[in-house]
Specification:
single chain, 1010 residues, mainly alpha, seven-stranded antiparallel beta sheet, 40 helices, elongated
């Protein structure tokens, strides 16, 4: 009875909640029908409640849930009716929220979402298309599928030409973003490097400026954040007559030929679009960077500007945030509107300190703070600050000549810094060094850029950030005699008070992250789980935790404290931001020192990779000890061949397993696995040879050799994976050097056998024990050196004046493994990929979805040089070009492996048949000599092929994949030489040719597919 009462009470509460949600939707809708004054507060909340209501209703039906479903259906009809009656431009301000729920699991909800999107596309296709292009080219198949379905209906409704133009433009801009310029190149040319993009203009697509994408809503505010408050609201029936955009919005008329390549590590490109109005508009093309964070933050800031504009206290103080357009093209690339007439605070300070004769050295500051026996706080106050006096106020004096302009600029600086300090604290915005804070040279206002470090990500850095926002002595000095106690504090209190007052509306904008999770959040879950969530439209747990932290801050809670008043929260934040104990713990290493440390770590890691491949090279030494082992154990020729080939089976068949392990558990663990396996295998072979361990069957010996192959592959994958991730620009040369030691190892170790173990009575037992300890020592040493260094976080990259954002690169992919396409063909391949329906092997269970388009990587002349796709698992096996590559590798490398395993038998047969009085010692030395020649040829081939591959791409402008033809020809020639050999000297030439061609094959393929 008690259980039934509890169930009844729970059902009643659920029904009450459903009824409440219905009335919330209904009354928010009535508010919107009476005018747009509260559009930015009501519409996001209405959508959040309605969308969550629809997701919660998906449960098995019973008597109680049937009544809840009725409530939901009524609420759904209210929203559908509202979508028909409200002006379509109202929904442009919440497009990101709608698009983030495009994979909503409730079909009734999605039908309404789709109708809203189609209505907006029909009336404002220019603005809506720029919102949808990032989803159309999404790497999540389900999102791309639903977006393409919406666009297909839009085409049928008459927007076909614009959709086609926008889709093609997106693909061409993705190609430009992903293009990798050669080292030292600072300027590229549209006419020669990106011919298809240059020829695509003129277009009917508008230039994606902020003023072109943001609608002007009646009685809700204008583009500057100032509200035009009338005596009465404008009802929805009259709003339909309003024109939210100017009639002369510029479309894309062409592109300037010059493309500036930035000096930062990922080499973004600045392009200039020529508008139909004759003006030129600059944009930054960012490669491999999830700009959805920046786009959401700009929407968040735009809503804050509307709130400030509607407040009688904030409006006279001109509290607002400078925003700019951010257009994601997919989850990894995008466009950022270039902000002119700005200069970084760091550049201003460096010039001012230089004028005062002050040398700025972060290394000296770090040395002072880390002085032995000294308290960092006292060192900071007594030695560091006096070396760097406050000089930022001088910039305002020099930049703004008249007292009136100077006072206005200083006031705007103080208030804009206060607003962004509060917004940055709420969002957990870190990485606020002086290169990410810009000054407007015309007004003195503050502009923040590079929003990669959001959601308290700075707290998890190797050296965590200790302050909530940037308020150093130079910033305080520029605020005037009152410092932060005057306009800064009051502006902070006003800004934070408004943020806390309207927290529900602000959270509605940020809640789109729950359903459109960032790439970095998705990477923390397994691929299957991530795609499953994407398909089902479920929230992301990492996004939920981040938004919960934001909600607590908006309620006045700081870490370890009870909720505070607005004034108390501001006071605590200012105290933390100016606390010397926290400031002295901030990161002090400059860019040069950081780059130097990364260089040292990368060099040490390369040394570890060479040690690992040296250990892996022991897999090719069977010919040096195999004949003696077979003779001692009485193995037949067939049995000896099976034992020898077992090592290669272990080596080659375990490649996919250890490749997955390298990405999952890291290279160091793999190197330790190799150490244990190598030591165990060679120790077992040694004691089996000596007779201490009785061998029941030659099959057991084969298992020992399989373990040798497994250990070699484990060490090899640890080395190659680390090297390809550490060296992006010259990975061919780097990988070839690493793999060259794989080939050089048999050469060196066979000579060690000749010198130390091949006496009158060859000491095979001692040689095998030597190999066991060698594998153990080198692999353990490699484990201590191997680390993926990468290219450092964005906080250490230099941002020149006017540069908007800078983040670390990630590896780019392209449209094919072996094919060469110009940029026109790349567009066709991407377009075809976006409409191909296939089964995704690692996606949701058995779902057939639209395949995500493969991002392209086009080099500087428009030709696809880097021809590798990001394939894995069965997707790689099922790819036609991947199969072709595997076939070439099987034939070319297989010949080399077979020759390595049988060179001892061939030399023995030729030597004993041609020598009247053969000696075992001489035969062993000849075998070692041939193994050494094969190894040396393999070393030279592996080393040179990587360098040649890089030269083909960077200097000769030829595709790397064409080298496969040359390699195949070399393999054919080497085997013709071996077949024609009748004497040991001629066989030696064949060994050299085989080793060289085998090195070409083995060294080139990792460079091509990495």
């Amino acid at each position: 009875a008690r259980s039934r009462e509890t169930t009844t009470a729970a059902d009643h509460r659920s029904l009450q909640m459903a009824t409440l949600q219905y009335y919330v939707v209904r009354h928010y809708g009535r508010t919107l029908m009476h005018g747009a004054r509260y559009l930015f507060r009501a519409l996001p909340r209405l959508l959040t409640v309605w969308l969550d209501f629809g997701a919660s209703i998906l449960r098995p039906a019973d008597a109680r849930s049937t009544r809840m479903v009725d409530r939901f259906r009524t609420a759904n009809r209210v929203v559908a009716n509202l979508a028909r009656r409200l002006p379509a431009y109202n929904f442009l301000v919440v497009m990101a929220q709608l698009v983030s729920r495009i994979c909503h699991p409730n079909e009734d909800v999605f039908a309404v979402v789709e109708s809203i999107l189609l209505n907006v596309l029909a009336l404002y296709p220019q603005q809506a298309m720029w919102q949808l292009v990032g989803v159309q080219r999404s790497t999540y198949a389900a999102r791309a599928a639903r977006c393409n379905a919406v666009l297909a209906k839009a085409r049928a409704a008459g927007a076909g030409d614009l959709v086609q133009q926008a889709s093609k433009l997106t693909d061409l801009l993705l190609a430009l973003c992903n293009a990798v310029p050669a080292r030292g190149v600072t300027t590229m040319h549209m006419a020669t490097d990106f011919r298809a993009l240059a020829r695509s203009a003129p277009l009917d697509v508008i230039v994606p400026l902020q003023r072109c994408l943001t609608p002007a809503v009646p009685d809700a505010g204008n583009g500057d954040g100032e509200l035009a408050l009338g005596p009465t609201p404008v009802p929805a029936s009259q709003q339909a007559l309003h024109q939210p955009f100017n009639s002369d919005l510029p479309t894309i008329s062409g592109f300037d030929d010059a493309i500036d390549v930035m000096h930062s590590l990922q080499r973004p490109k600045k392009i200039t679009i020529v508008g139909s109005d004759g003006h030129r508009y600059s944009f930054l093309c960012k490669p491999k960077d999830d700009l959805r964070k920046d786009a959401r933050l700009m929407e968040f800031n735009a809503m804050i500007n509307q709130l400030f504009g509607g407040d009688s206290r904030a409006r006279p103080r001109r509290l607002r945030i400078c925003t700019y357009a951010v257009v994601p093209l997919n989850e990894e690339c995008g466009l950022i509107e270039w902000v002119p007439n700005t200069v970084g605070v760091r550049h201003v300070l460096l010039r001012l300190y230089s004028a005062h004769g002050v040398s700025v050295s972060m290394a000296q500051a770090k040395a002072l703070l880390d002085a032995p026996g000294a308290e960092p706080e006292r060192q900071f106050l007594d030695h560091v600050l006096p070396r760097f006096p406050s000089v930022l106020h001088e910039w305002f004096v020099r930049q703004f000549g008249s007292p009136h302009l100077w006072l206005e600029a200083r006031s705007l600086f103080t208030r804009s810094a206060a607003v962004m300090s509060m917004v940055g604290h709420i969002l957990g915005l870190g990485d606020r060094h002086c290169e990410n804070i810009l000054l407007d040279e015309r007004s003195g206002g503050v502009l923040h850029v590079d929003f990669n470090c959001l959601f308290d990500k700075g707290l998890s850095l190797e050296k965590p950030e200790r302050v909530p926002f940037r308020l150093t002595h130079n910033m305080v000095d520029a605020m005037g005699v009152t410092g932060y106690e005057g306009a800064f504090r009051r502006s902070c209190e006003l800004a934070l008070g408004l943020l806390r007052e309207h927290r529900d509306a602000l959270m509605s904008v940020l809640e789109s992250f729950l359903h459109d999770p960032l790439v970095e959040w998705s990477r923390r879950t397994t691929r299957a789980a991530s795609r499953s969530k994407e398909t089902e439209g479920l929230p992301n747990e990492h996004a939920s935790r981040s938004l919960s932290a934001i909600r607590r801050k908006l309620q006045g809670s700081l870490q370890g404290m009870a909720p505070l008043s607005v004034e108390g929260q501001v006071d605590e934040l200012i105290q933390q931001a100016t606390d010397p104990k926290r400031l002295c713990q901030m990161y002090t290493m400059d860019e040069g020192e950081q780059r130097s440390q990364r260089h040292v770590r990368r060099t040490v890691s390369m040394l570890g990779a060479c040690l690992a491949t040296t250990s892996a090279g022991t897999v090719y030494l069977f010919s040096t000890y195999g004949p003696a082992l077979s003779h001692r154990l009485g193995l037949s020729s067939s049995q000896s061949n099976v034992v020898a080939i077992s090592a290669n089976y272990g080596l080659l068949l375990s490649g996919p397993l250890f490749g997955w392990a390298a990405d999952t558990i890291g290279p160091r663990v793999l190197s330790l696995i190799a150490a244990v396996g190598s030591f165990t295998a060679f120790t077992a072979l040694a004691y089996t040879y000596s007779g201490a361990w009785q061998m029941p069957s030659w099959l057991i010996l084969s298992l020992y050799m399989v373990l040798v192959g497994l250990s070699a592959q484990s060490a090899n994958m640890a080395a190659v994976t680390t090297t390809t991730k550490n060296f992006k620009q010259n990975r061919g040369s780097a990988v070839s050097l690493c793999i060259a030691f794989f080939g050089l190892s048999p050469f060196v170790l066979s000579h060690v056998n000749t010198v130390f173990f091949a006496g009158d009575e060859p000491d095979t037992f001692g040689y095998l024990r030597f190999l066991s300890f060698l594998g153990l020592v080198t692999s353990v040493a490699a484990a201590g050196c191997l680390t993926v260094v990468g290219f450092g976080p964005s906080r250490y990259a230099s941002v020149p004046p006017g540069f908007v954002v800078d983040r670390p690169p990630s590896s780019s992919s392209s449209s094919g493994l072996l094919s060469d396409r110009d940029d026109e063909s790349v567009y066709g391949a991407v377009k075809a990929a976006s409409t191909t329906v296939r089964e995704v092997g690692e996606g949701s269970a058995g779902s057939s979805t639209t395949a995500e388009p493969a991002p392209v990587n086009v080099a500087s002349n428009g030709v696809d040089y880097d021809t590798a796709r990001d394939l894995g698992g069965w997707a790689y096996v099922n790819d036609v070009e991947a199969r072709l590559l595997m076939l070439v590798l099987f034939l070319c490398a297989g010949i080399g492996i077979f020759y390595n395993n049988n060179i001892g038998t061939m030399v023995n047969a030729m030597y004993y048949s041609s020598t009247p009085h053969p000696e075992a010692r001489t035969a062993q030395r000849l075998i070692n000599h041939h193994v050494a020649v094969v190894s040396l040829g393999s070393f030279v081939g592996r080393l040179t092929i990587g360098i040649v591959a890089d030269m083909c791409k960077r200097i000769w402008r030829l595709p790397r994949s064409g080298i496969l033809v040359v390699i195949t020809a070399c393999v054919l020639v080497s085997q013709l030489v071996v077949i024609s050999a009748t004497t040991l000297p001629s066989l030696l030439v064949g060994s050299a040719c085989t080793g060289l061609s085998y090195g070409f094959t083995f060294g080139f393929v990792p460079t091509l597919v990495s």
